[in-house]
Design a protein that fits this description.
The chain has 630 residues and is α+β, with helices and mostly antiparallel strands. The protein is built from 13 helices and 22 strands. It is 32% helix and 18% strand.
Length: 630
């Protein structure tokens, strides 16, 4: 099946204040490596299992009930419709490359019953139809009606872009028009306690050209922080201050990050300086003071919220999978505004660690929270009562090809390295093909073969890649490969040209800012963009909780093991165990009576964090205390 329209995830082709134009999901084919394996597992295992879970959780049956096609009653939480819509968005992106008849049948069935369930005035939410119709939009704080509309609309845009069919898009348009009548300039102020619709409305504007959807998104952002409050005035709902006055990331992490992403979309259309001033301040607060080393976001169980600056507990880390995805989405939008490699660096960190960790290797079990330490017993689940994370993974991985590249006039930006084929046209109409071959992130050697023509290649040099080298047909590139930048090559490319990128993949110990109190005397191993952890199963000669990193880590070795965790580079080497019987000592002792550690050297294996808990519910640690001299 050929896509009917252009298939970017975020369409900035006509956005006056976006520097970059994303390529379409259908224009990129993953051809090998870790990302292709995760992408394929999502298509072949996760999405089919998700469809079954949507039936068992009553998500799909609810639509049959309210449409009158099946008898019964509506079940589940207020936001349950959104689980189905996110799955449907992922399934729609999957159809760009995966023309499976069964998947196509599921998508068609779901779209048909969604359309049948919609009310004549455009309203659609299974939780507030039938006997509960009178409660529509009476609880903007917590009912999630507009939030569910947002996910419906994002699914509708994806479905239209991939298939060219308008049936689901028309459902979203009718609902959006209802919201405009209620909350547009002639209606009352209104927004949702859970942001999401802002992104969706702007994408609907981009798909249809109807400016009222852009206007409504702007009003929903402007509705926050008003006096008297439109919501409840709380930090939790991001209603404590007008958006343009917010400078600190507070409240529910996923809600906040979705709001920031929507505001970035709005900036790309309006170019309002106050929006970007706010977004820059919030970005600095989130990614320089409140992000886990895994790219995880949200420190507190209470309110699923951001904590204070540098408040990053490990054992009690919330780090919801949806929050890592939301941060990924926000950075993608910031990257299209300005091709600054730091945004791609943050996306890559989240992808290889805080996002991939949310899905089991076989593709059918999920983490909701992603702690950086476990004492054992924590396992992925097949589904959840609040099942926001599994279908969020479905749509993120299904759309993954569309994140690898962006375009600028005369330039192809290569954001992420994965074996892939790109077939696209530059904004000036020039056709471009790229073939990329690499075993990244296990190897830092990348081959890029461009098609003939004069244009620029902008290759990201990750911030961690000290000593990176770029060569063209075996000769050093004229420009220096500076970590944390894009190296730009411009030339008349000929068929057979090859660009060789070498990113040194060495094991390094990473320390936290001393203000992160819990990690002040600890270190974590990283290799390239991959964060490593230790599981108890890989510490056969002692208790993981007594394990320390030695001062000299020069003996650590990294080696690919195809038989381990579906194939990973593992790190092996010496660590130190404290052999003092601490459990027999008092909880607190005076300093002069404190017994310093007595070390015993043991052999340990570190594995990528994303793959932990795939060999049982073993204890795990990302950060290990450093073996400081007494």
């Amino acid at each position: 099946m050929q896509p009917h329209t252009s298939t970017p995830i975020v369409q900035t082709k006509h956005s006056a204040h976006a520097c970059l134009k994303p390529v379409g999901v259908a224009e990129v084919k993953l051809t090998g490596g870790l990302l292709e394996e995760r992408y394929r597992t999502n298509l072949e295992a996760s999405i089919p299992a998700g469809w079954q879970q949507l039936w068992e959780s009553h998500t799909v049956p609810n639509f049959y009930v309210v449409s009158g096609r099946h008898p019964g009653e509506v079940k589940g939480p207020r936001y349950i419709d959104s689980d189905g819509y996110k799955w449907l968005e992922g399934a729609s992106w999957a159809l760009a490359h995966h023309g499976d008849d069964q998947l196509r049948q599921w998508v068609a069935e779901f779209v048909d019953v969604i359309a049948a369930a919609q009310e004549p005035d455009g309203y659609l939410n299974t939780q507030f139809m039938g006997e509960r119709t009178s409660r529509r939009f009476t609880d903007l704080n917590h009912a999630h009606e507009i939030y569910c509309f947002g996910h419906l609309t994002q699914a509708a845009v994806a479905h239209h872009r991939v298939t060219g069919e308008r049936n689901l898009l028309d459902v979203a348009i009718r609902y959006a028009d209802l919201l405009y009548r209620l909350f547009g300039p002639e209606g009352r102020w209104g927004t949702c306690g859970h942001p999401e619709a802002e992104m969706a409305l702007i994408e609907l504007y981009r798909e249809t050209g109807e400016k009222r959807y852009l206007e409504l998104a702007s009003r929903m952002i402007d509705a926050r922080g008003r006096k008297p409050p439109v919501l409840d005035g709380s930090h939790y709902l991001l209603d404590h201050a007008p958006f343009r006055e917010q400078r600190e990331a507070v409240g529910h992490a996923v809600r906040a990050l979705y709001l920031y992403a929507g505001a970035t979309d709005l900036y790309m259309e309006t170019g309002e300086p106050a929006l970007m001033e706010t977004l820059n301040a919030l970005w600095h607060d989130v990614f320089m003071r409140k992000m886990y080393v895994t790219g995880g976001l949200g420190a507190r169980y209470e309110g699923e919220a951001f904590g204070l600056a540098y408040e990053l507990p490990n054992l009690r880390a919330y780090a919801e999978t949806c929050a890592a995805i939301a941060g990924f989405m926000w950075n993608w939008r910031m990257l299209q505004v300005q091709p600054d490699a730091r945004y791609a660096d943050m996306m890559e960190l989240a992808l290889y660690n805080g996002i991939l960790s949310g899905l089991s290797l076989e593709g059918t079990r999920y983490f909701y929270m992603n702690p950086l330490e476990s004492r054992g017993g924590y396992e992925r689940q097949a589904w959840f009562g609040c099942a926001c994370c599994p279908p969020n993974i479905h749509r993120t991985l299904a759309s993954l090809p569309g994140y690898l590249y962006s375009l600028e006039e005369g330039t192809v930006y290569v954001h992420f390295y994965a074996s892939s084929e790109l077939n696209t046209r530059l904004p000036n109409g020039q056709p471009v093909r790229l073939q990329v071959q690499t075993d990244y992130p296990w190897s830092g050697d990348i081959s890029v073969r461009p098609s003939a023509g004069r244009y620029r290649l902008a290759l990201r040099v990750p911030g961690w890649a000290s000593g990176a080298e770029v060569r063209v047909n075996g000769h050093s590139a004229d420009a220096e490969a500076v970590p944390g930048t894009y190296l730009v090559l411009e030339r008349d490319w000929q068929e057979g040209d090859e660009v060789q990128v070498h990113l040194p993949m060495f094991v390094q110990v990473v320390r936290a800012n001393p203000r992160v109190e819990e990690d002040r005397a600890s270190g974590v191993l990283m290799r390239g963009p991959v964060v490593y952890c230790v599981e108890q199963v890989d510490v056969p000669d002692g208790n993981l909780m007594e394990l320390y990193l030695p001062a000299d880590t020069g003996g650590l070795e990294a080696q690919y093991d195809s038989s381990l965790l579906k194939g990973v580079v593992a790190i092996t080497g010496s660590a130190l165990l404290d052999t003092v019987a601490r459990e027999e000592q008092p909880l607190y002792v005076p300093m002069h009576r404190y017994e310093p550690p007595r070390w015993r050297e043991v052999q340990v294996r570190w594995v990528p964090y994303y793959a932990w808990a795939n060999r049982g519910a073993s204890a795990m640690k990302v950060w290990l205390p450093l073996a400081l001299q007494p």
